[in-house]
């Protein structure tokens, strides 16, 4: 599996110990994608402080990205922190806990985007790998079904 890491990603995952090759490239949306499927799947990585910034002062820019992501088969925001850090107000912002939680809930439902709290950076890296690997697996599965003549027009690649 070959992953594309956006050239604007400032602290990219190394994916050491994972069976992947990586290359830098410009992605239209998100920080990580599968080579050849950049217009169909993407993962956006966020530290907790970056997420809070996107929910508050960078909200307009972030909502534009979420709006673009609706065109993808699958898009997710992977957060390198536990939800409990938001609930305990362990972030640098004037944003309230309630405003942060409610904005995440609103964005999740409005843009059909899961926000996955992965505990820490290693958890975020693992989840990013797993999401992209599962998407790739489902693409191959769909191709095999198609080749066997079991064409399903409603087959979802994001299952």
Automatic annotation (TrEMBL):
Biological process, per Gene Ontology: DNA metabolic process
InterPro entries for the chain: ERCC4_domain, Restrct_endonuc-II-like
SUPFAM superfamilies recorded: Restriction endonuclease-like
Pfam families in the record: ERCC4
Residue span, ERCC4 domain: 2-83
SMART domains per UniProt: ERCC4 (SM00891)
GO MF: DNA binding; nuclease activity
The protein, known as: ERCC4 domain-containing protein
Organism: Syntrophobacter fumaroxidans (strain DSM 10017 / MPOB)
